[in-house]
């Protein structure tokens, strides 16, 4: 079993939005219908200048949303370790959203949770997630968490956010 995750090299992101558009296309999301993409792009001002962030589910190793869901709708895909969901039993309680440190889970018009699933169906068929495939600067990459670090920790959103969370504990 691989432990896959989508990682962002912040030094390469140019905030073009191609990843968000690919996400909307892959998941048949229509902004006119009041839905938003699972992946959003932001600009963040820092002391050194601007950073660009492409944010979606971080597919946490110990995903708190899984523990927070009383209906067991969220789980780890056994082959990829991506955090996926099946809302058949979702009761719309928002516990998963409250448990997620990134505020990722959102709720559709039917009141059921929706979120990025890492395009796990694509990944199962040997394809890259839609956002990773279209990233023109290769800032988004599908990585194996058990492989040697491919992205310097100072550039990785995953490593920077983990450090921030550790400081708050």
TrEMBL record:
Highest taxon above the source species: Bacteria
Gene3D superfamilies assigned: 3.30.70.20
Residue stretches making up the 4Fe-4S ferredoxin-type domain: 4-34, 81-110
Pfam families: Fer4_11 (PF13247)
Keywords recorded for this protein, A-Z: 4Fe-4S, Electron transport, Iron, Iron-sulfur, Metal-binding, Repeat, Transport
PANTHER family: ANAEROBIC DIMETHYL SULFOXIDE REDUCTASE CHAIN B-RELATED, PROTEIN NRFC
Protein name (Swiss-Prot/TrEMBL): 4Fe-4S binding protein
Source organism phylogeny: Bacteria, Bacillati, Bacillota, Clostridia, Eubacteriales
């Amino acid at each position: 079993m691989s432990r896959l995750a989508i990682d962002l090299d912040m030094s390469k992101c140019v905030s073009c939005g191609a990843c968000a558009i690919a996400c909307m296309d892959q998941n048949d999301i229509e902004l006119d219908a009041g839905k938003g993409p699972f992946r959003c792009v932001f600009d963040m001002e820092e002391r050194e200048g601007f950073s660009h962030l492409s944010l979606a589910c971080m597919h946490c190793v110990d995903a708190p949303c899984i523990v927070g869901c009383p209906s067991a709708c969220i789980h780890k895909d056994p082959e990829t370790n991506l955090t996926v969901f099946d809302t058949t039993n979702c009761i719309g309680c928002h516990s998963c959203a409250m448990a997620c440190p990134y505020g990722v889970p959102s709720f559709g018009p039917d009141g059921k949770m929706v979120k990025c699933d890492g395009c796990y169906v694509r990944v199962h068929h040997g394809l890259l997630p839609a956002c990773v495939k279209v990233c023109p600067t290769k800032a988004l990459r599908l990585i194996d968490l058990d492989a040697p670090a491919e992205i310097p920790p100072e550039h990785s959103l995953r490593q920077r956010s983990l450090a921030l969370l550790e400081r708050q504990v």
